[in-house]
Amino acid sequence: MNVAVMGYGTVGSGVVEIINKRDLGLDVKYILDLRDFPGDENASKFTKDFNDILTDDTVKIVIETMGGQTPAFDFVSKCLAAGKHVVTSNKELVAEKGLELITLAKENNVNFMFEASVGGGIPIIRPLTFCLKANNIRSINGILNGTTNFILTKMIRENMSFADALKIAQDNGYAEKDPTADVEGHDACRKICILSALAFGNHVYPKNVHCEGITKIALEDVAYAASIGASIKLIGTAEDRGNGQLYIVVSPAIVMAESQLSSVSDVFNAVLVNGDATDEVLFFGKGAGKLPTASAVVADALDCMEHDNNRRPIFWGPEKPELIMDYQEIPNKYYIRLKGADKDAICAAFAGATFLEGATDDIAFISNEVTENEARAKVSTISNAELCSLIRVARC
Ligand code: HSE
């Protein structure tokens, strides 16, 4: 079956490489990219004109690996409306426009598939949609961004600077075109939105989810966490609060040694799904990079080929922003580092605080469960205390 690949970057070139190498029944007829690739072995397939793909009825499956919303949304919409299946690795597109695109796919009796949009090479979209369907999902906690996990691992294990670690992540093709999306948590946020829509049934837009990145993490915090065998990781959390509401947040979190996520390092991602029938199920693998991500894309294309005349029922409903709780009102344990405070005053404000050992004069401790608003209010009652860090303790 003929496919077209739109976008010949890290993922798109990996997709073409796998399809060319493996006898899977897929043939790449077009590669759409505005750039030139002199000497590339696929020279005869390049086009700069999207209409070559749109108007060619022999192209049944279109693979979108351009990233971003423009022109991806326009191109993908037109392909679906023209009766072509579309496979994408583009999490921004799915998180922002997924509802419109799955609706358009349904109306045109074609498939819109996006396994590679979360967790790179890890199968998670299909398992969540099909294999775990018998469950009410209680929670999802995940390390969802390979670049930040790689950077944090290098900082923790090799004392490497943030900038040097980011450069290696970029050289390896892990980072987004603008790595701000990685380090400020936007990429992980898009992914937890997609997982939330699948798990809880309504579209979740990134603008409604609180999102913090890793740029404010200090090496002191890494060292204090290490003193109790814990590490700091960027975690996406989505939790059914049992009152019809959801708690969804992306932020750095202290991951205790006993957590299933504690040993997930480098570019690896992991998604821990807690279902009411299964309890915890862990999905683990490379969350970014050329071939791992291309693996998920090509599998989707094969699924489209095998279901050419019947749809894969991946669907969710419109957003209900009122379902998302105010993240500041959810009780959680917090890691807190203060300058200029004394322990007695901290104990008076935070009953049951567990103090951590570190090499600085700051005082760091883990609080009992409090809301973020309460934690900040308590800190403000401690005389001379300057708040240096306030980091959630992971809920898994
Ligand atoms: N920039 C992303 C990451 C790519 O580092 O996880 C995979 O989605």
Q: Could you report the average pLDDT, rounded to the nearest whole number?
A: 96
Unreliable spans: none
CATH architecture field of the largest domain: 2-Layer Sandwich
Count of runs of 4 or more consecutive helical residues: 13
Task: Label the structural class.
Answer: alpha/beta
The CATH topology of the largest domain is: Dihydrodipicolinate Reductase, domain 2
Chain oligomer state: single chain
End-to-end Cα distance: 44 Å
Fourth-level CATH superfamily of the largest domain = Dihydrodipicolinate Reductase, domain 2
What string, H for helix and E for strand, traces the elements in order? EHEEHEHEHEHEHHHHEHEEEEHEHEEHE
Radius of gyration: 23 Å
What is bound: which ligands? L-homoserine
Structure description:
Strand 14 and strand 15 form a beta hairpin. The longest helix is centred in the first third of the chain and has 17 residues, at 91-107. 34% of the residues lie in helices and 23% in strands. The radius of gyration is 23 Å and the shape is elongated. It has 13 helices and 16 strands. It has 396 residues and is of the alpha/beta class. Strands 7, 8, 9, 10, 11, 12, 13, 14, 15 and 16 form a 10-stranded mixed β-sheet that branches. A 6-stranded parallel β-sheet has the order 3-2-1-4-5-6, sandwiched between helices. L-homoserine binds at residues 120, 145-147, 174-176, 182, 187, 287-288.
